[in-house]
Amino acid sequence: SYVLTQPPSVSVAPGKTASITCGGNNIGSKSVHWYQQKPGQAPVVVIFYDSERPSGIPERFSGSNSGNTATLTISRVEAGDEADYSCQVWDTSSLVFGGGTKLTVL
Amino acid sequence: EVQLVESGGGLVQPGRSLRLSCAASGFTFDNYAMHWVRQAPGKGLEWVSGISWNSGNIGYGDSVKGRFTSSRDNAKNSLYLQMNSLRAEDTALYYCAKDINRGIGSGHSDYWGQGTLVTVSS
Fold first, then answer.
1. Residue A89's closest chain B neighbor by CA?
2. Are A43 and B45 an interchain contact pair (Cβ–Cβ within 8 Å)?
Protein backbone atom coordinates (compact mmCIF):
# COMPACT_ATOMS: atom_id res chain seq x y z
CA SER A 1 0.00 0.00 0.00
CA TYR A 2 1.04 3.57 -0.62
CA VAL A 3 2.98 5.28 2.16
CA LEU A 4 3.27 8.99 2.88
CA THR A 5 6.19 10.04 5.09
CA GLN A 6 6.16 13.25 7.12
CA PRO A 7 8.62 14.46 9.75
CA PRO A 8 7.08 14.04 13.21
CA SER A 9 7.90 17.59 14.20
CA VAL A 10 9.01 20.93 12.82
CA SER A 11 9.92 23.95 14.91
CA VAL A 12 10.06 27.54 13.72
CA ALA A 13 10.41 30.98 15.23
CA PRO A 14 7.61 33.49 14.78
CA GLY A 15 7.93 35.46 11.57
CA LYS A 16 10.06 32.80 9.90
CA THR A 17 9.12 30.27 7.24
CA ALA A 18 8.11 26.69 8.02
CA SER A 19 8.33 23.90 5.45
CA ILE A 20 6.59 20.59 6.08
CA THR A 21 7.36 17.78 3.65
CA CYS A 22 5.31 14.79 2.58
CA GLY A 23 7.25 12.07 0.83
CA GLY A 24 5.79 9.36 -1.36
CA ASN A 25 6.75 7.35 -4.42
CA ASN A 26 6.14 9.60 -7.44
CA ILE A 27 3.82 11.76 -5.35
CA GLY A 28 4.21 14.46 -7.98
CA SER A 29 1.80 12.50 -10.16
CA LYS A 30 -0.92 12.65 -7.50
CA SER A 31 -3.07 15.42 -6.05
CA VAL A 32 -2.01 16.33 -2.53
CA HIS A 33 -4.18 17.93 0.11
CA TRP A 34 -3.04 19.37 3.43
CA TYR A 35 -5.03 19.56 6.67
CA GLN A 36 -4.41 21.57 9.79
CA GLN A 37 -5.64 20.17 13.09
CA LYS A 38 -5.52 22.03 16.37
CA PRO A 39 -5.97 20.24 19.72
CA GLY A 40 -9.54 19.13 20.30
CA GLN A 41 -10.68 20.25 16.86
CA ALA A 42 -11.52 18.55 13.60
CA PRO A 43 -9.11 18.85 10.67
CA VAL A 44 -9.38 21.83 8.33
CA VAL A 45 -8.07 21.81 4.77
CA VAL A 46 -5.46 24.50 4.22
CA ILE A 47 -4.19 23.47 0.76
CA PHE A 48 -5.91 21.30 -1.84
CA TYR A 49 -4.87 20.00 -5.23
CA ASP A 50 -1.20 20.61 -4.43
CA SER A 51 -1.30 24.39 -4.23
CA GLU A 52 -4.87 25.70 -4.12
CA ARG A 53 -5.89 27.66 -1.06
CA PRO A 54 -9.47 27.60 0.30
CA SER A 55 -11.19 30.86 1.00
CA GLY A 56 -10.38 32.04 4.49
CA ILE A 57 -6.92 30.49 4.55
CA PRO A 58 -4.20 33.15 4.68
CA GLU A 59 -1.94 33.68 1.67
CA ARG A 60 0.91 32.75 3.98
CA PHE A 61 0.00 29.11 3.32
CA SER A 62 1.23 27.64 0.06
CA GLY A 63 1.94 24.22 -1.40
CA SER A 64 4.04 22.53 -4.04
CA ASN A 65 4.37 19.01 -5.35
CA SER A 66 7.02 17.46 -7.56
CA GLY A 67 8.90 14.21 -7.90
CA ASN A 68 8.76 12.30 -4.64
CA THR A 69 8.02 15.22 -2.31
CA ALA A 70 5.12 17.54 -1.64
CA THR A 71 5.71 20.57 0.56
CA LEU A 72 3.49 22.78 2.66
CA THR A 73 5.08 26.17 3.26
CA ILE A 74 3.92 28.61 5.87
CA SER A 75 5.45 32.06 5.60
CA ARG A 76 5.65 34.61 8.40
CA VAL A 77 4.62 32.00 10.92
CA GLU A 78 2.34 33.09 13.74
CA ALA A 79 1.66 31.53 17.12
CA GLY A 80 -1.79 30.56 15.90
CA ASP A 81 -0.27 28.33 13.22
CA GLU A 82 0.89 25.87 15.88
CA ALA A 83 -0.95 22.65 15.04
CA ASP A 84 -0.65 19.20 13.49
CA TYR A 85 -0.46 19.13 9.71
CA SER A 86 -1.29 16.05 7.63
CA CYS A 87 -0.99 15.41 3.91
CA GLN A 88 -3.45 13.23 2.00
CA VAL A 89 -3.56 11.59 -1.41
CA TRP A 90 -5.70 9.06 -3.25
CA ASP A 91 -3.95 5.92 -4.45
CA THR A 92 -5.40 2.84 -6.09
CA SER A 93 -8.83 2.91 -4.45
CA SER A 94 -7.52 4.06 -1.08
CA LEU A 95 -7.32 7.41 0.59
CA VAL A 96 -3.96 7.75 2.36
CA PHE A 97 -2.86 10.15 5.07
CA GLY A 98 0.66 10.96 6.13
CA GLY A 99 1.54 10.38 9.75
CA GLY A 100 1.25 14.07 10.57
CA THR A 101 3.72 16.76 11.56
CA LYS A 102 3.49 18.79 14.73
CA LEU A 103 4.42 22.38 14.03
CA THR A 104 5.80 24.14 17.08
CA VAL A 105 6.17 27.90 17.10
CA LEU A 106 9.09 28.77 19.34
CA GLU B 1 -24.29 26.26 7.26
CA VAL B 2 -22.89 22.80 6.68
CA GLN B 3 -23.19 20.54 9.71
CA LEU B 4 -22.06 16.97 10.22
CA VAL B 5 -23.02 15.39 13.51
CA GLU B 6 -21.74 11.95 14.40
CA SER B 7 -23.36 9.69 16.97
CA GLY B 8 -23.36 6.11 18.15
CA GLY B 9 -19.94 5.90 19.76
CA GLY B 10 -19.32 4.41 23.16
CA LEU B 11 -17.62 1.66 25.11
CA VAL B 12 -17.90 -1.80 23.55
CA GLN B 13 -16.28 -5.14 24.28
CA PRO B 14 -13.86 -6.74 21.82
CA GLY B 15 -15.65 -8.85 19.25
CA ARG B 16 -18.91 -6.94 19.55
CA SER B 17 -20.55 -4.58 17.06
CA LEU B 18 -21.41 -0.90 16.93
CA ARG B 19 -23.17 1.31 14.40
CA LEU B 20 -22.17 4.91 13.90
CA SER B 21 -24.36 7.53 12.27
CA CYS B 22 -23.63 10.91 10.74
CA ALA B 23 -26.46 13.39 10.25
CA ALA B 24 -25.76 15.94 7.52
CA SER B 25 -27.38 19.29 6.92
CA GLY B 26 -26.73 22.56 5.13
CA PHE B 27 -25.87 21.05 1.74
CA THR B 28 -27.34 18.75 -0.89
CA PHE B 29 -26.28 15.47 0.67
CA ASP B 30 -26.86 13.26 -2.36
CA ASN B 31 -24.49 15.36 -4.48
CA TYR B 32 -21.37 14.37 -2.59
CA ALA B 33 -19.27 11.44 -1.56
CA MET B 34 -18.72 10.97 2.16
CA HIS B 35 -15.93 9.49 4.26
CA TRP B 36 -15.26 8.04 7.67
CA VAL B 37 -11.85 8.94 9.06
CA ARG B 38 -10.60 7.91 12.49
CA GLN B 39 -7.93 9.09 14.85
CA ALA B 40 -6.61 6.92 17.65
CA PRO B 41 -5.59 8.77 20.82
CA GLY B 42 -2.40 10.72 20.16
CA LYS B 43 -2.11 9.34 16.63
CA GLY B 44 -2.61 10.56 13.09
CA LEU B 45 -5.59 10.43 10.77
CA GLU B 46 -6.58 7.10 9.21
CA TRP B 47 -9.08 6.66 6.42
CA VAL B 48 -11.72 4.10 7.32
CA SER B 49 -14.14 4.21 4.40
CA GLY B 50 -15.53 6.31 1.60
CA ILE B 51 -18.85 6.06 -0.22
CA SER B 52 -19.85 7.74 -3.45
CA TRP B 53 -22.96 9.87 -3.82
CA ASN B 54 -25.17 6.99 -4.95
CA SER B 55 -23.42 4.20 -2.99
CA GLY B 56 -22.15 2.83 -6.30
CA ASN B 57 -18.54 2.92 -5.16
CA ILE B 58 -17.49 2.11 -1.61
CA GLY B 59 -13.92 1.76 -0.42
CA TYR B 60 -12.33 0.64 2.82
CA GLY B 61 -9.00 0.93 4.53
CA ASP B 62 -7.03 -2.29 4.79
CA SER B 63 -7.36 -2.46 8.58
CA VAL B 64 -11.18 -2.56 8.50
CA LYS B 65 -11.87 -4.38 5.25
CA GLY B 66 -14.25 -7.27 5.81
CA ARG B 67 -15.32 -6.03 9.26
CA PHE B 68 -16.80 -2.56 8.63
CA THR B 69 -19.58 -1.60 6.22
CA SER B 70 -20.44 1.91 5.06
CA SER B 71 -23.87 2.90 3.86
CA ARG B 72 -25.91 6.02 3.30
CA ASP B 73 -29.55 6.99 3.16
CA ASN B 74 -29.87 10.02 0.92
CA ALA B 75 -33.52 10.44 1.80
CA LYS B 76 -32.51 10.88 5.43
CA ASN B 77 -29.29 12.83 4.75
CA SER B 78 -27.44 10.26 6.79
CA LEU B 79 -24.24 8.25 6.63
CA TYR B 80 -23.65 5.06 8.57
CA LEU B 81 -20.77 2.84 9.58
CA GLN B 82 -21.51 -0.67 10.76
CA MET B 83 -18.55 -1.94 12.73
CA ASN B 84 -18.33 -5.67 13.47
CA SER B 85 -15.72 -7.82 15.20
CA LEU B 86 -14.32 -4.79 16.97
CA ARG B 87 -10.76 -4.87 18.27
CA ALA B 88 -8.87 -2.81 20.80
CA GLU B 89 -7.00 -1.16 17.93
CA ASP B 90 -10.28 0.23 16.59
CA THR B 91 -10.40 2.57 19.59
CA ALA B 92 -10.47 6.05 18.11
CA LEU B 93 -12.40 9.23 17.46
CA TYR B 94 -14.43 8.61 14.31
CA TYR B 95 -15.02 11.58 12.03
CA CYS B 96 -17.56 11.92 9.27
CA ALA B 97 -16.27 14.09 6.41
CA LYS B 98 -17.80 15.49 3.23
CA ASP B 99 -15.94 15.13 -0.06
CA ILE B 100 -15.93 17.91 -2.63
CA ASN B 101 -16.81 15.45 -5.39
CA ARG B 102 -19.57 12.95 -6.10
CA GLY B 103 -17.17 10.06 -6.30
CA ILE B 104 -14.49 8.90 -3.91
CA GLY B 105 -11.09 9.64 -5.38
CA SER B 106 -8.60 12.43 -5.66
CA GLY B 107 -10.71 15.10 -4.01
CA HIS B 108 -10.42 16.41 -0.48
CA SER B 109 -12.79 16.78 2.43
CA ASP B 110 -14.02 20.31 2.93
CA TYR B 111 -16.20 19.75 6.00
CA TRP B 112 -15.74 17.49 9.01
CA GLY B 113 -17.87 16.65 12.01
CA GLN B 114 -16.56 16.82 15.56
CA GLY B 115 -16.31 13.06 15.84
CA THR B 116 -17.72 10.31 18.02
CA LEU B 117 -15.48 8.32 20.33
CA VAL B 118 -15.36 4.55 20.10
CA THR B 119 -13.59 2.66 22.87
CA VAL B 120 -13.09 -1.07 22.51
CA SER B 121 -12.20 -2.64 25.82
CA SER B 122 -13.24 -5.47 28.09
1. B106
2. yes
pLDDT of residue B96: 98
Query: Are A33 and B108 an interchain contact pair (Cβ–Cβ within 8 Å)?
Result: yes
What type of residue sits at position B42?
G
User: For the segment B14-73, what is each residue's pLDDT rounded down to a tens digit?
Assistant: 999 999 999 999 999 999 999 999 999 999 999 999 999 999 999 999 999 999 999 999
**How far apart (Å, rounded) are the C-alpha atoms in residues A67 and A92?**
18
Strands A18-23 and A69-74: antiparallel
Decide if B46 and A94 are in contact by the 8 Å CB cutoff: no
Eight-state DSSP code of residue B104: S
Assign residue B10 a region: left if phi > 0, alpha if psi is -120 to 50, beta otherwise? left
Q: Report the chain A residue with the minimal C-alpha distance to residue B35.
A: A95
Locate the DSSP E strands across B1-122. Answer: 3-7, 10-12, 18-25, 34-39, 45-51, 58-60, 68-73, 78-83, 92-99, 109-112, 116-120
- Strands (E) in A1-106, as ranges, are 9-12, 18-23, 33-37, 44-47, 61-66, 69-74, 83-91, 94-97, 101-105
Q: How far apart are CA B3 and CA B115, in angstroms?
A: 12
- Alpha helix stretches (DSSP H) within B3-121: none
Report the C-alpha gap between B92 and B76 in whole angstroms. 26
Q: How far is B24 from chain A (nearest CA, A)?
A: 16
pLDDT of residue B106: 85
